[in-house]
Structure formats: structure tokens, C-alpha cells
Amino acid sequence: MPAVSVDGLFGVRYTYLDVELEFKNVPLPDASGEKDWFDPLIGARTFIDFSERWNLSLQGNVGGFGVGSDFTWGALGAIGYRFRLCIISLCCKSECASAGYTDCCGLRCRPLAGL
User: Fold this and answer.
1) Is 46 among the domain residues?
2) pTM summary value
3) What's the rounded Cα separation, in Å, for the pair 8 and 44?
4) 38 with 67: CB under 8 angstroms?
5) Exposure string (b/e) for 67-78, b if CB count within 10 Å is 16 or more?
6) 19 belongs to a structural domain
7) How many other β-carbons are positioned within 10 Å of the β-carbon of residue 96?
8) Which stretches does DSSP call E strand in the chain?
9) 106 vs 91: CA distance, rounded Å
10) pLDDT tens track for 34-71
11) Residue 15 lies in a domain
């Protein structure tokens, strides 16, 4: 039977956006701008050990609540493998995060891998 642990999370996410638009061969003026804010977050994460070597980690959070952005969320999933002879583990992750702000919104997804 898998071993499962669950943790509650709280914290702050800092977002900084810096954009520069340069138009070439088009009669439009260049544009730039920047914006930054802090968002309070709450969330949870779970670790599931399927065996002595294989494990799964899931994490999710929500925040913003009108303090920085209107609403923000993040999710992360990872599967890992622990090597027998050392404390190193290999994991592959996928992460998505989004923020809705009065002037802008966006979604970022990226695959991650590490030791």
C-alpha cells in the first residue's frame, strides 16, 4: 500500500513583468512597460511513495484575492525515482501557473527535470 503524506502551504508569490516591443519594417512606434506585484498564496502538496524507489508529488495553490492580482493559481506534478546506493533521486516535473491582473493575464507551463 502506498505511503501518503499531505502538507498545507501558505506564502507569497512575486511577479515581475518587463515587456519591450520593437517593430521592424512597420510604421508603428516601439512600446515597453513593466509591472510587478505580490500575491498571498494558500495551497497543499502531497507525496505518495508507491514503492521504495518510485514516488509522486502533487502540489497546488491559489491566491491573489485582490491584494496583488485578482486571482492566481499554480499546479505542479512530479514523478521520481530514488537510486538504491545514494540519496539522489531523479524526477520529472510539469508546472503551470497563471495570474489574472486588471491590466493583463497569462499562463505559463513548463516541463522540469532534475536530480
Assistant:
1) yes
2) 0.71
3) 4
4) yes
5) ebbeebbbbbeb
6) no
7) 14
8) 3-21, 31-49, 54-63, 71-82, 89-100, 105-114
9) 26
10) 989 899 999 999 999 999 888 899 999 999 998 988 88
11) no
